[in-house]
Amino acid sequence: MSLPLHARTRPGTPVPEHEVLDGLPPVREVSADEVAARIARGPRLVVLDDDPTGTQTVAGVPVLTSWTVDDLRWALRQDSSAFFVLTNTRSLSPEDAAVRNREVVRALHEASAAEGTGYVLASRSDSTLRGHFPLETDVLAQELARLGAGPVDGVVLVPAYIEAGRLTVDSRHWMRTSGGLLPVGESEFARDATFGYRSSSLPEWVEEKTAGRVAADEVLRITLDDLRGGGSAHVAALLLSLHRGRTAVVDAVCDDDLRVLALALAEAEQQGSRLLYRVGPSFVRARAGQTARAPLTPAQLRPLRGDAPHGLIAVGSHVSLTTRQLDRLRERGSIAEYELDVTLLLDTERREAHIAEVAAAAAGALESADAVIRTSRTLVTGVDADDSLAISRRVSAALVEVVRRVNASRRPAFVVAKGGITSSDTATHGLGIRRAWARGTLLPGIVSLWEPVDGPAAGIPYIVFAGNVGGDEALADALDLLRSA
Asked: What's the predicted TM-score (pTM) here?
C-alpha cells in the first residue's frame, strides 16, 4: 500500500499538482444560473468579512463598513442576493472581535425584521486559515439563539479560494506555489504570530483550533466523492444530519464543486436546517449565484477615476509575496516611494512629525507620479500574540492617517491598499467609506475595486489588494491597468 501524500512529502516541500489532482472524480457541472434560480426570493446571504478582501470574487454586490440598522436596511433593500459587512475582526483582540460580531448580528436582526427579509450568515475569513476561529462562529451561534432565531445545527467550513490556488482535496487544504501544491500547515501563513497553526487536514485543524473541544473524528467530511458523485441531493442529506452545532468541512477544487454545495445548502435550509458558514472568498460567489467575471476594462475604469493625474498605493502587508510585488513595481518605474519607519511610528515623541512629513511628500508627488507609501519591510512583533496585534494596529493607524491627509490635500486618481488590515482601516478611517459597491476586479478573481457611495472618497475608485494573492507581477499589472484608464 502506498503512503498518503502528506506522509511522503517533506515538510515545506510542494507536491506536483498532478499528484494531488489526478484521479479525482469527474466534475459535476452546475451553472451559476441554476444556483441563482434556486436561491431567488430566499434569505439574503450576509457576509461578515474579517478583512475587506472577501469581495474579490464577486461583482455588483453592496459593501458596508458600518453596521447601523439604517446601513443594514439600505443593503437589504438593494437588488443583490448577497452583501458584505466589513467587520475587520482579524485585526482585533478576541474580546473585541466577539463584541463586534454581536453588534452586527443584533443590528442585522433588527434591520431584517424591519425590511421583512430573511438572512443566512457567512463568516468570511482567510483562505490560508488565519482568523478568529472558532470564536466568531461560536459567538454568532450564541447571539442567534439569544435573539430567538433558534439553535445552529451546523457550522460549514469551506476555505477554498479557487483563483488563488487554495484547494481542498480529501479534507486536506493546499495552496498553490510556483513549485506545486503545498499543505497550508507548512506555509509561512501557518507561522502567523497571532493565528498560527500546524494542521493541514481540516478535521485536525478544527481539533487544534478548538483545543480539543471538537475531535477530528467528530467532524463531518464532505468530499469530492460526495459533491461530484452524489450531487446536491446527497450533500443536502449529509447537511441535514448536522445537529447541535456540529462542524462540517467541504472539499473544493473548482466553482462547480461550490455550486453543488450551494444547491445542497439551499435545500437543507429550506427543510429547516440552520447553518453558519465559515468560508473563503470563492464560496460567496457560488452561494450568491454569480459566475466568474473578466477583469474590469480601461473603458469601465475611466469614468471612476478621481481628480489627480496619479494614484496612491498604501502597502502594509509584510508577507514575502508583497515584498516581491513591490520589487517588480519598482522595476517598471513611474512611482514615487515613501517609507513609514516602524521604529519611528512606535516612538511617541517622533511619530506625529514622521506622519506629517510622509503625507506632505506623497500628496505633492501625485502631480507627477503614482505615490507608494509603505511601512518598513522589517516585521516588528511583540512578546505575545496580543502584543503583536497591538503593534500592527498602531502601524496601520499611521498608514491610514497618511492616506487621510493625502486625500484631504489632493484627491488621488485611485487608491490601492495592499494587505488585509491595511485595506480595511484605509477604507473606514482613511477614506471614510460607509457604503460602497464591489464593481469587479483588476485581475482574474483577485484585487477587488469598490465604488464608494458617499463620504470623502466618493468619486475615487478604491482597490482592495490582499497581501497573499497574485504572482510577483500582480501589483505592477494592476497599476498598469489603472494607468491605462
From this structure: 0.89
